[in-house]
Amino acid sequence: MTTTLYEQIRQFYDNSSELWEQIWGEHMHHGYYGRTGNHKIERRQAQINLIEELLSWADAPHPSNILDAGCGIGGSTLYLAKKYNAQAMGITLSPIQAARATERAQAANLDQTVRFQVTDAQQTPFEDNTFDWVWSLESGEHMPDKEQFLQECYRVLKPGGSLLFATWCHRPTNSLAGALTPKEQRHLEEIYRVYCLPYTISLPEYEEIAKNCGFRDLKSNDWSTAVAPFWDVVIDSAFEPQAFLGLARAGWGTVQAALSMGLMRQGYESGLIRFGLLYGVK
């Protein structure tokens, strides 16, 4: 990962994670609002529902050792470790996130089995064949080399281990819609700038990369409709008094991201932004 991008991502999450936890809680990802996206669900419950729906969709064997690649403040890591009585390792680029996740593990009496550290997910320090699962929930979009990231996921998985991956994508370009238009590219570039992303690719491209890495039993799905209401809910929450105060403390980068949330909503509405799922076995 390039030093400049590494620092941008680290700073973004160092500055914004405390505010996110205050307003939204421990889960730093989309919510699930039913397959048609029209279920009225409390925002934090919708985030838990997304985890459970992903687990149901993947139908993977229960793990004993999990790697959460892009763990935030440990929401999914702790949830999965408790659900499966498993060991887990969460990795993030943000020292503040790793420290907060460790505090939360201690508070949950899981610090003997769940650990967190600052690590580049494209080049981890773990041995080959270490984990039963690699769980990556909305971190792939930050990876400057998607192929290297999926190769690393494959490397650290035990034979028979599972990858469950959900990420921001752009629409497929191998259909009648064709290549991205200049207007679509400008829209994406603004999202990349605000949210510290190098670029996104389509779900079919991720499938091809995973296949070339050696993953088998591949399956994928597009849950854009099910998660799209998330951005309306986040925008509404930004008007709460607590959010105003938190934004003032978090700095311009976080303020800019909050002001740009409409870009994601518009992207889902137009079909440009997609929420892609990928599952494979080593």
UniProtKB/TrEMBL annotation:
Q: Which UniProt keywords apply?
A: Methyltransferase, S-adenosyl-L-methionine, Transferase
What SUPFAM superfamilies does this protein map onto? S-adenosyl-L-methionine-dependent methyltransferases
Methyltransferase type domain residues are 67-165
Q: Where is this region: SAM motif I?
A: 66-75
Q: Where is this region: SAM motif III?
A: 156-165
Q: Where is this region: SAM motif II?
A: 129-137
Single GO molecular-function term? S-adenosylmethionine-dependent methyltransferase activity
Q: Which Gene3D superfamilies match?
A: Vaccinia Virus protein VP39
Biological process (GO), any one: methylation
The record's comment on protein family reads:
Belongs to the class I-like SAM-binding methyltransferase superfamily. gTMT family.
Q: What is this protein called?
A: Methyltransferase domain-containing protein
What is the originating organism of this protein?
Lusitaniella coriacea LEGE 07157
- Show the taxonomic lineage: Bacteria, Bacillati, Cyanobacteriota, Cyanophyceae, Spirulinales
